[in-house]
């Protein structure tokens, strides 16, 4: 597995169950998965040699993040290594503009979008779609970084200023009035078998997912449509392993595809406790082309609250036992130093209702993130 | 954690969730927990220096097995290390005769027993209790090793021959007609708080637990009595961490205490999937004197089947995906080479009924242990 963050950490925990040797390519021996005990090699995703050092001993190469230079992926593939997902699928998680092109060409509904390489491009887009518009970095953005809601030409100019126009580095998008955001998790094997999880409803603040409920509390018609759309997208793009399809539910109750992640995803952490097969076990099974597991839920509802660093100092060691005193609280820590805006863990609670699960999980998260 | 077998391996997986650094004392870097990624030190439980090398960096010392020389435990404790369970509690898992004395003195029902250091001792015991009798090694037996059902004086003589009579090395026990064997898992903190899991029914063959169901399908009165008895025993012996109390249900529907294990236990593996809090998370919480977690089940019933090596050669790599194709099957492998009679993994299934769960788990286990 290329990358050694919390997704690799939790994939390693699943790999131990099945006695699968998951070797991670880590930037540091303090990376989350390394601290969690995953066998590792130190190296950089920018180095083909480092990537090969991990790949050469592996049956399959897979990913904890998509920030790997495309040319290195293509070279690994050409050498003959088995990459799941494949470079052609993975690039859709790397390049938001490319993903939008592929999805809209295939007929999937997305917000109106345009590639932007100059202020005049952007002004042309606003004249058609009005203000505000959403400007997104074509590559590399996550957790709200690289996403801007732009209200007027002045903001637009200051954002685009300093960006060389050599290539279209921005994706402009119409601002859509939405009532909810969904994430549909699906696993797909190289042979094309797939299973879909109950849709998750995600709740963002400042571009970071703060909490989520499973299943989403949306009309059944929308949930069915979301599941079908995710399955269809997985096949269209040739996804393998876990795929998360993030969607908007508009005020008109239409679904629009927002972004793709081709890996286990933050929105799927509730599956560890809430589903028969966790997304981490499922990812391993999918990339190895093994039979996939049941995605059924073990409870009526579940909620996950992300633990996110604050401006104030935390005292996790003192708070953790207090949080565990709340019945039904499952804490997952990532061995990451909390910094403002940085996810360092999550809490999952199962309950009969999503609101009950969320209330309990929030209470535990608030305890852990209280000022020292 | 002293010891690095599968119990340490699964405790490490739980420790990763809570970002607890679980360092194991391992005899080899091929030990199950080491392969699973637990930080480790190589050493022997017979060496006080090796034990101290692990203990000195730890807040608490706990155990994956009880085969540690008592004098070393006592010395560690005297030096000031915090051992959970304490040496005085742990010796009851080390010494079956001592356990019986303590339990029967405290008024808990056990099979009639006597310490045996000669054939004449044994003959005196049989004249009171009849044949057969059960002879057990006082120390060190597990998985049926060191337990013998003796039918006649000839067998008795051949067993006792060659055993020096310097101390009573055998525990003689009346042969009890039983209808079921139960294991009651309980967690207790140093402060004396405790929680009890639903009783488990275990099924042995050749002295090894082959499978188990949770909850036990015994009359409610017996289950309640078993839970109360386990709780009372935990307090009486000052157990800390997980305690497994193995019990017989006699043909007269009486409960007799058989053996004690002061650690996570093979009979508790179903708790990983079937309970809100697994026995491994619970053990960590208990020995750290943290709040204990809910022991409620997430399904009506669960079954675990142990994967045990056979005389024939296995092909786990080929069979594992086939077993995973059976819906609802959870496989746990211990990174142990299968040898005849050696547990190398287990399978858990949750279901509405114990029989349904057991049928599915057995089917998966039979697949994995089929001849190559």
Q: In a few lines, what is going on in this structure?
A:
Two copies of one chain form a homodimer. Chain A has 372 residues and is an alpha+beta fold.
Keywords:
372 residues, nine-stranded antiparallel beta sheet, Rossmann fold, 13 helices, D-amino Acid Aminotransferase, Chain A, domain 1, homodimer, four-stranded antiparallel beta sheet, alpha+beta, 24% strand, 3 domains, Dna Ligase, domain 1, 34% helix
Describe the overall structure.
The structure is a homodimer of 372-residue chains. Chain A has helices at 6-17, 32-35, 48-55, 70-79, 87-94, 96-105, 119-129, 153-160, 220-237, 271-274, 279-287, 316-324, 354-368; strands spanning 24-26, 40-42, 113-116, 133-137, 147-150, 170-174, 178-188, 194-196, 200-205, 208-214, 241-250, 255-261, 301-308, 330-333, 343-351. With 372 residues, the first copy, chain A, is of the alpha+beta class. Chain A has three domains: 6-83, Rossmann fold (3-Layer(aba) Sandwich); 112-174, ATP-grasp fold, A domain (Dna Ligase, domain 1, 2-Layer Sandwich), CATH 3.30.1490.20; 178-368, ATP-grasp fold, B domain (D-amino Acid Aminotransferase, Chain A, domain 1). Chain A is globular and about 55 Å long. At the A-B interface, helix 1, helix 12 and strand 14 of A face helix 1, helix 12 and strand 14 of B.
């Amino acid at each position: 597995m290329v990358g050694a963050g919390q997704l690799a950490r939790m994939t390693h925990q699943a790999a131990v169950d099945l006695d699968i040797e998951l070797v991670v390519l880590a930037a540091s021996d303090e990376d989350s998965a390394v601290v969690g005990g995953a066998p590792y090699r130190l190296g950089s995703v920018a180095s083909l040699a480092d990537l090969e050092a991990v790949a050469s001993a592996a049956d399959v190469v897979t990913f904890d993040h998509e920030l790997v230079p495309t040319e290195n992926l293509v070279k690994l593939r050409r050498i003959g290594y088995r990459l799941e997902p494949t470079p052609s699928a993975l690039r859709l998680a790397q390049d938001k503009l490319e993903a939008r092109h592929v999805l809209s060409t295939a007929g999937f509904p997305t917000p109106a979008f345009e590639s932007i390489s100059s202020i005049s491009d952007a002004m042309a887009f606003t004249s058609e779609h009005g203000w505000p518009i959403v400007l997104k970095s074509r590559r590399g953005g996550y957790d709200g970084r690289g996403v801007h809601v732009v209200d007027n030409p002045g903001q637009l100019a200051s954002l685009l200023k300093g960006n060389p126009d050599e290539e279209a580095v921005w994706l402009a998008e119409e601002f859509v009035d939405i009532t909810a955001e969904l994430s549909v998790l699906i696993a797909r094997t190289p042979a094309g078998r797939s299973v879909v999880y109950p849709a998750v409803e995600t709740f963002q603040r400042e571009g970071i997912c703060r909490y989520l409920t499973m299943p989403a509390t949306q009309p059944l018609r929308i949930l069915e449509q979301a599941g079908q759309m995710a399955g269809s997208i997985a096949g269209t793009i040739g996804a393998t392993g876990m795929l998360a399809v993030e969607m908007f539910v508009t005020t008109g109750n239409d679904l629009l595809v927002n972004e793709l992640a081709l890996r286990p995803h933050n929105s799927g952490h509730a599956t560890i406790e809430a589903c028969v097969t966790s997304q981490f076990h499922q990812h391993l099974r999918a990339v190895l082309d093994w039979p996939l597991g049941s995605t059924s839920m073990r409870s009526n509802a579940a909620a996950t609250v992300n633990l996110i660093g604050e401006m104030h100092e935390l005292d996790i060691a003192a708070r953790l036992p207090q949080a565990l005193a709340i019945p039904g609280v499952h804490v997952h820590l990532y061995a990451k130093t909390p910094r403002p805006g940085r996810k360092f863990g999550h809490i999952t609670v199962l309950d009969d209702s999503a609101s009950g699960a969320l209330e309990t999980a929030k209470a535990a998260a608030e305890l852990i993130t209280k000022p020292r």
